[in-house]
Amino acid sequence: MPDLPPVIVVTGTGTEIGKTVVTAALAASLLHRGLRVTVVKATQTGLQPGEPGDVDEVAALAGDVRARELVRLPDPLAPDAAARVAGVEIPTVAEHADSVMHLIRDGSADVVLVEGAGGLLVRMDSDGATIADLGTALEARGARVGFLVVATAGLGTLNHSALTAEALRHRGLDCLGFVIGSWPEDPDLAMRCNLDDLPAVTGAPLLGWVPEGAGRWEPERFRAEAPAWLRVE
């Protein structure tokens, strides 16, 4: 049996820090290498049916990816809270893992990217399971899983990043490294220091950064420049 394609779970140290644009940059980089990419959003919150979601943004920026959104909830909350407010049952993390494994095994991707919701320990289902638990469930099903963590650039990011790295180590999950989700043209002193300090406090490499505002670029420019932003093997 051929090896299954690797899974990269894109999570963050919080919400609204650039996970979707980083996912798009990673997808564009992989496509640039000639790899086939599937992008999965397990749970999309804060959007009505028919509105473009995170996977749509990834596809628009990165290009020819296969995009899959598994669940959508209208309120901008953590998935379990959004489901309670909407009065609906959502799949368990184990069921999400089965859905992702189906996409992994169908032979149409060389790499599967899974974008989380919020941070690593945001509750994904009514049992309290998290995106970290999704990684564990995928590994239990035979997948090769690594976590890429998106962090903010400025003051305060070291603590949040160290906590996320520690949580991954505690669960025996592979942290591929950190990416700064929005890097300004004129970084301040704290931001410049964080380039050296992030690897020191997390024990994981800094894999790169995405320029501030890149998500608003024309797709042609985004695809041309994205491969230079990240160093993911």
TrEMBL record:
It is found in: Cytoplasm. Pfam families: AAA_26. Its cofactor is Mg(2+). Transmembrane segments: none annotated. Keywords: ATP-binding, Biotin biosynthesis, Cytoplasm, Ligase, Magnesium, Metal-binding, Nucleotide-binding. CDD domains: DTBS. HAMAP family: BioD. Catalyzes a mechanistically unusual reaction, the ATP-dependent insertion of CO2 between the N7 and N8 nitrogen atoms of 7,8-diaminopelargonic acid (DAPA, also called 7,8-diammoniononanoate) to form a ureido ring. This is ATP-dependent dethiobiotin synthetase BioD. It comes from Oryzihumus leptocrescens. The lineage of its organism: Bacteria, Bacillati, Actinomycetota, Actinomycetes, Micrococcales.
